[in-house]
Amino acid sequence: MPIHEFDCLKCGHRFEELVGSHGTAATEVKCPECGATELKRRISPYAPVPRQLTPNQRRRLEDKRGTDRGGAKQRFKQQRAAERRAASRRAGPRGNR
Ligand SMILES: [Zn+2]
Fold it and tell me: Looking at the domain 3-42, which fold is it?
């Protein structure tokens, strides 16, 4: 997926841009808010999807896109585990009684 996430260094706006042969050339990406070209590219290990999707919807979307299922499933599992770990950490110290 040639979609990249960018942070504008000027106004802090975060946006996604399709970069590559079907989109904007990497050198021509501009902030849609202020037009600045000083951007920081974020490398996301995940295919970027709209944030308001639930994990379930996201997974279905990935399936539809034809991402290789085994890999996606495994990544999903890892993410779930990480989320659970983060949640229990937030809830308090764990296993320390
Ligand atoms: Zn900007």
Answer: Rubrerythrin, domain 2 (2.20.28)
Ligand 1 centroid to 54 CA: how many Å?
A: 28
> Residue 29 Cα, ligand 1 centroid: separation in angstroms?
11
Span from the CA of 4 to the centroid of ligand 1 (angstroms): 16
**Buried-state track 53-91, b at ≥16 Cβ within 10 A, e below 16:** eeeeebbeebeeeebeeeebeebbeeeeeeeeeeeeeee
| Ligand 1 centroid, distance to 33 Cα (angstroms) | 5
pLDDT tens digit sequence for 10-62: 999 999 998 887 788 888 999 999 999 999 988 755 555 556 778 888 888 87
